[in-house]
């Protein structure tokens, strides 16, 4: 019984020594950067999509350029129209950039300090 308790304690101390170097600030920085960049650039992404689906049908409005497209959307739907469909993009960008910053720096630390040989770049 003591052998199992000791191995569990040593296993938890190994995990605690690894996760002691985890910096959650990287996760927060990645999430906030992804969300803010998406919120800032979503209207331009919406314009790009509007131009892509403008296939000459009379049902869709014709746009003369980027500014004309933005002002038309603003006049018809307001701010809500410019940020139409932003929720899934914000979730995706925040999650992906947050995990990227978190895992990239964490795995980089493990590669250089904790792993005795290079697991990520093994040449066969």
Helices, strands, pairings?
Elements: H1 2-19, H2 24-53, H3 66-82, H4 86-114
Can you describe what's shown?
- It comes from Canis lupus dingo (dingo).
- With 124 residues, the protein is mostly helical.
- 76% of the residues lie in helices and 0% in strands.
- It has four helices and no strands.
- Helix 2 (24-53) packs across helix 3 (66-82) and helix 2 (24-53) crosses helix 4 (86-114).
- It starts with a helix and ends in a 10-residue tail after the last helix.
- The model has no long low-confidence stretch (mean pLDDT 79).
Descriptive key words:
single chain, 124 residues, mainly alpha, 76% helix, Solute carrier family 25 member 32, transmembrane helix
SSE-based structural type? mainly alpha
Work out the helix count.
Answer: 4
**Sheet with the most strands, sense and barrel status:** none
Provide the β-strand percentage band: under 5%
Low-confidence runs of at least 5 consecutive residues: none
Rg estimate, integer Å: 24 Å
How many angstroms separate the termini?
Answer: 42 Å
The overall pLDDT, averaged over residues, is 79
Number of strand elements: 0
Spell out the helices and strands N to C. Answer: HHHH
Share of residues in helices: over 70%
Shape: rod-shaped
In short:
The protein is mainly alpha-helical.
């Amino acid at each position: 019984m003591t052998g199992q308790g000791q191995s569990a304690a040593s296993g938890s101390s190994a995990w605690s020594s690894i996760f002691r170097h985890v910096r959650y600030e990287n996760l927060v920085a990645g999430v906030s950067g992804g969300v803010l960049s998406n919120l800032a650039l979503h209207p331009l992404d919406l314009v790009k999509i509007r131009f892509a689906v403008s296939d000459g049908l009379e049902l869709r409005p014709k746009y003369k350029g980027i500014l004309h497209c933005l002002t038309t959307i603003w006049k018809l739907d307001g701010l809500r129209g410019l940020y139409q469909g932003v929720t899934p993009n914000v979730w995706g960008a925040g999650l992906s950039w947050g995990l990227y910053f978190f895992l990239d720096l964490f795995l980089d630390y493990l590669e250089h300090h904790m792993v005795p040989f290079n697991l990520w770049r093994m040449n066969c």
